[in-house]
Amino acid sequence: MNTLATTFQMLATAETETATASPFSLLIPIVLVGGLFYLFILMPQRRRQKKSREMQASIGIGDEIRTIGGIVGTIVGQDDQTFTLDLGASTMRVIKRAVAERMEAEPTMDDKE
Predict the structure, then answer these.
(1) What pLDDT does 108 receive?
(2) What is the model's pLDDT at position 107?
(3) Does residue 99 contact residue 67 with C-beta atoms inside 8 Å?
(4) What does the alpha-carbon distance between residue 7 and residue 60 come to, in Å, rounded to a whole number?
(5) What are 10-24's pLDDT values in tens digits?
(6) How far is CA 83 from the centre of its chain?
(7) Where in the chain is the domain with CATH 2.30.30?
(8) CA–CA dist 73, 102 (Å, integer)
(9) Would you state the pLDDT for residue 24?
(10) Which of 16, 61, 77, 94 has a 20 to 30 A CA-CA distance from 28?
């Protein structure tokens, strides 16, 4: 019985000695995880958003675009928040934020030579 009590006393002493660790030692892993989160998730997302805003600001009437829904059309009109697209047989209004990309003209056989 005496050895069991001694063992519990040693464990209790060991726990109190390790519990007095610096609070900054717990802060370091949190800061590292936060830094990695910013580096790998937030920075690339901000770059994509900036590139998308610049592309949407640079397009205008006459540009052929593709929306995030996959609709391809030529811009024939615009106002503050929307574009009017010519789809060939009809027209459609889309929100400017829904533009995914500007379609580049496909090279013809004359351009390849």
Answers:
(1) 59
(2) 59
(3) yes
(4) 79
(5) 666 655 555 556 777
(6) 25
(7) 61-105
(8) 10
(9) 79
(10) 16
Q: Which residue has the tokens 């610096």?
A: 22
The pLDDT of residue 91? 93
Structure tokens given for 75:
């811009």
Bridge partner residues of 83 (DSSP): 78, 94
CATH code matching the domain that covers 61-105, chosen among 1.20.120, 1.10.760, 2.30.30, 2.40.30: 2.30.30
**How is 58-86 classified by DSSP, letter by letter?**
H--TT-EEEETTS-EEEEEEE-SSEEEEE
State both tokens at 56: 């949407």
Q: Reduce the DSSP state of residue 14 to 3 states and report it.
A: helix
Measured between alpha carbons, how far is residue 1 from residues 4, 15, 24, 62 in Å?
5, 21, 40, 92
Q: For residue 106, is pLDDT > 70?
A: no
